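Repro:
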Amino acid sequence: MVPPPRRLPVAFALALLILLSSLVGVAAVVATPAASPVVIEAAPEVSHAAPSGEQLLRLTGPVEPIVTLDPALARDVTASFFSRLLFRGLTRLDDSLAPVPELAERIEISADGLVYRFVLREAATFHDGRPIVAADVIASLTRSLSPATAGDSPERLGGPTYLSDIDGAEAVTAGRSDTLRGARVVDERTLELRLAAPRATFLMKLASPAAAIVDPIQVAAGADWWQAPNGSGPFAVGAFVPEERLDLVAFDGYAAGPPTLRRIEMRLGPTAANAYNLYQAGEIDVTAVPLSSIDLALDPEEGAIGEVSVVPLLATSYIAFRTDEPPLDDPAVRRALALAFPRAQLAEVGFAGHKLAADGLLPPGLLGREWPTALPAYDPEAARAALAESRYGAGEAMPPLQIYGLGAFGAETLRDTAGETLGIEIDVVELEWPDYYLRLARRELPAHELLWVADYPDPESFLWSLFGAESPDNFTGYANPTFDALLDEAAATLDSEARADLYDQAHRLLIDDGVVLPLLHDIRYTLSRPTVKGLVVTQLGILDFDGVWIEQ
């Protein structure tokens, strides 16, 4: 007889899932079921502060046009931020970046780690008051995997990155099925998701925009539904004037607890330019601090009015190489480029110490580790020696390289130092984001520079997402069976220390293969007015405004 599930507090249940292997050994955790299922229950509905006054938050949004607010197509930090305001899913990441129930009130995980049963909050509704039911959740997940959602640009889909753990996801993504085999409606408020294999990070990935719940009735009514979406999140669209403003209003029926803020006014387009100056003029309430103003903002006597939050992000800028075409197919060329890059000087001089020189792709702090690698330090003499061992022998004999990017400061630095040190000609090509992303996703670029912010606090969000052979975000086509095997084993390992050891091996292998040149780890400097209370800047950035309020 199977024992009844144990009802556990969220923190303990999650700790149990992660730490079970420390009791019985890694192999046992991967191969042996737990004694009984684990149940995670949502905290009671949050009761936010109830201060007086207008409760208006003023912000700037993107200068570039908003292409969509559809969470299934949210493929950058800005789009993901908008998605979290308007839409929510079964789970979310809390202020400590732990996955917790959101529109689910209860999560039961089977003893073998394959079946997740979710019970929706009874009060969960869309903005128009229609109850959210299990079929809506499954329709939303399936839609985020379906190429039909993205029209002629399937690479814009987030589902293949975040939902591929679900059994049958690949068939939907490939267009072979309209039904997500691993998803099942139990009753109106209950659904089950069956995984193809146990995955330690599944609940984290369910907090992504790709897993947000949209109204399938509205989506079916027309392609422009996203301009006034019937969302599932704590805020609804009040007014949207493209390239001018986006006004959001609080949704008082939000099941996890309505926000204290009543309105968010967001400038868009040209009116959003020079956000720091707008803050100084008293026209917005929160802004990122530009590099040129960080020292001034941090000066207690000369700084700007407000509180400066300084948070090292789980983010890395890097240059990645396709290794299937010359000259970057030559390992000696890639090693020479790595040796010719002065990352410490770039961090300390180019960015005045406001970014960290990267020792690897993984930012320090993930799973409580530092992640050192054998990434070579700047050494011009060793760089010349490495290039001499290549098939070219010298930079002058090499064809020019092209590195693509968005404001590619690292690529420009490499162009200058590799040109001076090695005689290699490098052309830096800057593109606009939509074109850049599409060309990345189609693997058309021989080398590219990118700043990657983790989607969830696990090395998998870097290693598998960017370099796993089956990942849709593998922009280089890198494929190493040993690397992939380590990632597969890590993904199915619940013990955090054992999983970290496997990721460490994979990380070192990736760096040794020379397919990526890590540059810098980002630090977020956020300035907010003294009247803005409850704002939390996590290592993934600002995730939401659920607990924010304005002191009058």
